[in-house]
Amino acid sequence: MSSSGRRERGRFALVLETLRGQWVTATVWVVGGGVANAAMILSLKREMDSFPGGATALAASVLPAAEAMRPLRWPAERLDTLGGYTTYHNLTLFTLFLAIYAAIQGARSIRGAEDHHVLEEILATGWSRASVVRDRAVGFVLTAAAITLGLGAGVALGFIAAGEPQTARALQALVAPGLGMLVGYGLGLLLAQLTASAPSAAGLASGLLVVAYVVENTWEDLGAFAWLRYGSPFHYVNRSRTLVPGQHLDLAASAVLIGLAGALVLLATWAFVRRDYASALWVVRRRTPPRTALPGRVTRGLLHSTAAALVLRGRFGILAWSAGAFVYGTLMLFLEPSVLKMWSWFATFMPGGVSPSASTPSEQYIDVSTTLAVPFVAGVVVSQAAGWVRDLAQGRVEAVLAAPVSTARLVLGRLAAAGAASVIVGLGALAGVLLGGAWSDVRLDAPGLLRVEGACLLLGLGLAGVASVVVAVFPGTLAVTVFGVVLGASYLVGFLVGPMDWPAWVNRFSLVTLFGHPYLDWVEAVDAAVLGGLCVVGVLVGGLVVDRRPKAV
Questions:
Q1: Which residues of 89-104 are buried (b: 16+ CB within 10 A; e: fewer)?
Q2: DSSP secondary structure of 436-486
């Protein structure tokens, strides 16, 4: 190879490294998301054809429930067509999930490299800070393009299989969600420069995106705050619903998304250039700076109480996820009166399955609102797992085991810390529900709220068990990626069981199913046993791998 070719390869080294680091999740998004979209489109087509009265009657029956579920999924237009129904049923949720995924990647792209002490090596080889941000961003843009193209191909194949081919529109339908990914990436990247750690930025960015999503879906009920929708990226994504008859790709809205993403990346670059390495942009300076701890240094607190030390060290990330759950809970209960105006008209039809234990539409809505603590609990457990990976990279695991601390004590401490983090996130969600309920004068059931808190703990311990196994088996940051993929697949299972006519026991692989409806009733015994079993397996397998291969912890 010529010297110019080698220089070109070196120039794009960070871009290529970013692509290599993203290929697993990108493949899962393309394959899993594409198959899920195609399967759902076929299922929706079958439902429309078999419904008494046809597609028109189905749309009329679904629309009131869709109005009632606006905080979770909107807009709902032309539900009498396969394109309109697919946009409402599939693409709105995919848009949110893609944006959150991108925000987490943005938070990790720079700050994560600092946490793993990789970035200083890159900077030492001649890259400027601005060029690092640029190359990481370019790598993610290419990744996002591959994901959106793959998902669009899955949608196109679904329509072809359903006998309504519209390939061009299907591919265009994922353009706006792909641009929304770039906004999410820029938001996570910027917040990572302003906060103490990548998990903190990821939690805060995810919470803000969820709030922006709900604001766009419910802006008509926000009164004087309706203008907030113009600050939501989902407002501009929703203006390009190409699968809905009469709609098209809105170039002006797409330009706004590109400009917003670019502005966020530029602000993040400015902040990264100005801030101290491994520090937030704005920090309170002490007159006598404390001595900086070496990467492998272990505090006495970690040796005395692993769980307490892990919670303390990850407090900013935990508080960020808790704050997101708090804001979401507040907003959901704030909207309760306006939502129930529609819900009360059609209280017997609840998409997604609401427990029949509810005696009133209000109880059903509160149950749905509290169930939405699930993604925040999952998020905080992911952040805990990322902390375990950092401990290995920074030498803390070997130092703790040499203390000596037993492997069982280390693994149990990790799971206890994840359980405590889940409880804190659950408290944040319930605090939001209480505040929103007080604002809207909604009566809340205290035992139901306590059951929700218990379910958050149980779910957190079960997920921590899975994380313990994944972190033990897979090396480095790949473990966090694999764990995220497992969670995403588990979440999607709940949406596919019914339409695909899978056996009911498959629901046990769904996070939402395992969480149940604790506000209305206790978690089912089988679901509790599954979560408890996952926790036990995590302890046993995690401890076994630590004993046999300490560096794989």
A1: bbbbbbbbbbbbbbbb
A2: HHHHHT----HHHHHHHHHHHHHHHHHHHHHHHHHHHHS-TTHHHHHHHHH
Alpha helices, H only, 51-128: 54-68, 82-86, 92-115, 119-124
Q: Assign 277 a pLDDT band (cuts: 50, 70, 90).
A: confident
Q: What does pLDDT average to over the chain?
A: 84
Axis-axis angle for helices 525-548, 446-473 (nearest 10): 30
Say if residue 409's pLDDT is above 90. no
Tokens of 374: 């699930």
What would the DSSP string read from start to end of 398-433? HHHHTTT--HHHHHHHHHHHHHHHHHHHHHHHHHHH
**pLDDT tens-place string over residues 355-390:** 455 567 788 888 888 988 898 899 899 889 888 887
State how far the alpha carbon of 316 is from the alpha carbons of 188, 432, 460, 480, in Å. 15, 19, 18, 19
Residue 298 has pLDDT above 50, yes or no: no
Is the separation of the CB atoms in 40 and 89 below 8 Å?
yes
Q: Which residue has the higher pLDDT, 322 or 550?
A: 322
72 pLDDT above the threshold of 90? no
Contact 109, 140 (CB under 8 A): yes
Give the closest residue to 167 by CA, choosing from 85, 254, 88, 243: 243
Number of neighbouring beta carbons within 10 Å of residue 511: 22
What six digits make up the tokens of 153? 């191909």
DSSP string across 145-187 = HHHHHHHHHHHHHHHHHTT---HHHHHHHTHHHHHHHHHHHHH
Which of 163, 168, 150 is CA-nearest to residue 82? Answer: 163
- Could you report the per-residue pLDDT of 17-30, keeping only the tens digit for each? 899 888 888 888 89
